[in-house]
Amino acid sequence: MRAHLGDQLVIESPTTGGARRDGEIVGLHHEDGTPPYDVCWSDTDEVTLVFPGPDAHIRHLEHGQPGAARESQTDSGEAAVPPAAPPSGAANPGDIGRRVAAERRRLGVSREETAHRARMSLSYLTYLEERPADPTLAALIGLAGALGTTVAALRGGGIDLPPGQGNALLHPQLRDLGPEECRTLLSTHGVGRVAVSASDGRPAVVPVNYEVIDDAIVFRTAPGSVTAAAADKEVAFEVDHVDDALSQGWSVLAVGPARTVTDPDAVRRFAQDAHARPWAGGEREMWVSIRPTSLTGRRIISADQ
Questions:
Q1: The pTM is what?
Q2: Between 276 and 7, where is the model more confident?
Q3: Strand 56-61 to strand 21-28: parallel, antiparallel, or no bridges (unpaired)?
Q4: Which residues of 15-27 are buried (b: 16+ CB within 10 A; e: fewer)?
Q5: Pairwise pLDDT comparison (87 vs 22), residue with the higher score
């Protein structure tokens, strides 16, 4: 019997028709994946050390295919399906793992000490911090207690709050971005903010879904709307990203003239190349194009990097 982190241990009742028990393997004690295992039981959320018997088998979760699973046979002599290979390559943590690592570093606590406090195997904490994972409630409760925070915070609670409420870096560094890096960051479609003078003469900043097509920032709006007032004016367009877990982020500011797109072929191409419709919904068939004459940006990183 061999397993890796995230697999399920299933124990069948020796009584025909009896209930079975299953749990997630959250800790390995041997590099080759042989027993014993630390198992978090689905019915109690308790983690116990398990030496599987002949009534147990492993359900291997396919890495990279959430929700997919396949079962191997027991060690009774039947052919067993080899477990999926553990993920390799550069670390690619999920949001929870990044929050755990960031909070641990903020407190100055080692990974080993955190695992000890959370009563969790070091190998599982390493996996959690370096790979996308879906830890159990029991694991999150243990980590929250070890780090002096809450399960909601580790899960990203406060999603309705504005970004940037995390703690600042101990040694932040603010650096200017070059034009090419600004173009690269801007070219990822998403949500940006256009600053315009509304029809009543007052300034307004409005979020819009945008695309970058042929080096122009384009977005859809409705005639008579605030963003429609951007047409035939010089406007500012800003896009940013804030990483609360790491207290880092960047922003790009584009300034240039805005024009209403009237060419039917251009409108058709914009609609075809658009990744998504405006989140606000409604009929928004007026296209506005901004061609930046100025492109600047800044990034906040740790000076220790």
A1: 0.52
A2: 7
A3: unpaired
A4: eeeeeebebbbbb
A5: 22
